[in-house]
Amino acid sequence: MLAAGPAAAHEFTAAILSVGEGREARLAEAVRGFLLAAEERDGHGGQTSDGHIGGVDVNILPLPAEAAGGVGDLNGRPDATPHVVVVVGPEKEASTAMAEASANSAVLRPGTLPARAVWTDAAAADSFAERYRSAYGTAPTEAAAEGYNAARRLDLAIRPLDGTEPRAELASALAKTEAGIDW
Description:
By secondary structure, the chain is of the alpha/beta class. Helices cover 38% and strands 14% of the residues.
């Protein structure tokens, strides 16, 4: 029998919290964008999570639960209390939600997106837009790009830490990418 050890803890839960009007559609799109990034690197057979961010298994928790009807394709087993909460939606509602979530979780907004052409242009075969179209049969929305951007920022922050702790270092790393990252 194997004892639970570091490998058992080598996963985290990322909640994607959609706020404001149109939150159901925004949540589904943000989760799809996040999933696209979570499937780009470090995948392996027999995966029981929703993908990998920063070399660590990620389980996605769509919130609020009553807005998650349009979210599909999730395989993970998320914790009820997420390690990280990504808040998407209008700034006013997002600020309130971030304050409430920060007591138990690292919290972030998606960050500044690259120029619109970067996430809408499907001309290059390996572009975000083309991969999104291939996976979901439709062009990506801004919410999808935000989910993708948030996941990429988390990847950059988590990879050197090999997890989501210490939270202060995670927050510092996320702050460094808030103004934008290259896709």
